[in-house]
Design a protein that fits this description.
The protein is α/β, with parallel strands linked by helices and about 250 residues long. It has seven helices and ten strands. It is about 35% helix and about 20% strand. The strands form two sheets. It has a seven-stranded parallel β-barrel, surrounded by five helices. It has a two-stranded antiparallel sheet with strand order 7-8. Strand 7 (about 200-205) and strand 8 (about 210) form a beta hairpin.
């Protein structure tokens, strides 16, 4: 039997409505008050994750709410380390009150992309994670700078893919600023899901098919139809004999 994880970025909506997706996923990336989120939302997300036995991850990003953390912010290496440490620790401190714990870190937005390509930023991120003293894995793009730095530091790394974002031929995501970067229609989402889950491949924005490894598939909770997408994905994968299971269980 095959297994695959479904993760989702959560705790990013002001009213907590994105948490409705929790029953259909196996891992959740909870915003830590940087690009989005607040203590009340973090607590509610942790409670819902515990209720549905969903693995909890921290989702730190640039503290730039005006741009939802999707623009790069010029920071010194130590500032990035401190940003990661403070946001992850903030979420962990709330998790402890619920007898829960954070198991991994997935970066958000521009910081996700910057750490995937910039050696110094990646090192600063990993230093921030290690500074927490927690035993945390990292979820991110395969064959990236971040993967190499994570493994060199002795941390576990898991590869994720996206079913609602277009890919370039180099295996990187098409920037959100580009036309057709985000996949909105259900048919295309299902097609990309089947490629990734069943064939370990993905069609690029240019129509070519490339190899794509994935331990986890990401659904964006802030995309239109996210809840319906999650329901469809779970049903489709089950029909193919694939069990939804966290990459850390």
């Amino acid at each position: 039997m095959r297994y695959i994880d479904i993760n989702c970025d959560l705790g990013e909506s002001d009213d907590g409505s994105d948490l409705q997706i929790m029953p259909y996923i196996s891992s959740c990336n909870i915003a830590c008050g940087g690009h989005a989120g607040n203590p009340d939302l973090m607590l509610k997300a942790i409670q819902e994750a515990s209720r549905y036995l969903v693995t909890i991850g921290a989702h730190p990003g640039y503290a730039d709410r005006a741009h939802f953390g999707r623009k790069s912010v010029p920071l010194e290496n130590m500032e990035i380390t401190l940003l990661i440490y403070e946001q992850v620790t903030r979420l962990q401190n709330i998790a402890v009150t619920e007898r829960a714990s954070i198991r991994y870190v997935k970066l958000h937005g521009a910081l996700y992309h910057d750490a995937s390509e910039n050696l110094e930023i990646a090192r600063s991120v990993i230093e921030g994670i290690k500074k927490t003293g927690l035993d945390l894995a990292v979820l991110g793009p395969a064959h990236s700078v971040l993967e190499r730095v994570t493994l060199t530091a002795g941390l576990k790394f898991f590869m994720e893919s996206f079913i609602d974002r277009r890919y370039n031929q180099n295996g990187r995501l098409v920037p959100r600023t580009a036309p057709d970067a985000v996949i909105g229609d259900r048919e295309s989402i299902e097609k990309q899901l089947k490629e990734i889950a069943l064939e370990r491949k993905v069609s690029t924005i240019d129509g070519e098919q490339i190899d794509l490894e994935a331990d986890s598939i990401c659904i964006h909770g802030d995309h239109p139809g996210a809840l319906e997408n999650a329901q469809t994905i779970r049903k489709l994968l089950s029909g193919e004999g694939i069990t939804i299971k966290s990459f850390l269980t």
